Amino acid sequence: MFDPAVPDFGESITLVPGTTPDVWWYRSSTGEDLAPHTKPIRAAEQITRILTPYVAAVLAARTHRRERTGEERPILRPHPDQPHAATIADLQDRSGVICWWGTYTEEWWALVPGGTRWRIVNAPDPEALIETIFRSRGGRLPRARGRYR
Question: Is the dihedral of CA 26, 87, 135, 139 positive or negative?
Fold first, then answer.
């Protein structure tokens, strides 16, 4: 797993055989079993639980530096060859947070800052993700700019 907002920080997730035949487990690099292979959303939730304090600390330090220096923190753009790159870029522009398409979950995801308690949210389509992001912030929804492909 990799977060473009913290490019020097990442996590390796592997699939390992479980104790039951035909059941594999997502396992973190620390050896923690995250969830069975049939529950990728649960694995994403678990790794988010593990990594959020570290990512939040890095981003909080950047925010503190930005407040002192006036430096802006850009949201990195997805690579043009990445699936759904145009939609991801539009979601990030509209929401101001890091967004991505979950290839295995087949859902849209975002990392929403909230002081020291960041949240990971997901939704079945881009418009629902925008709504979820803004509701999680307690804000009003932006006007829709069109349909996604």
Answer: positive
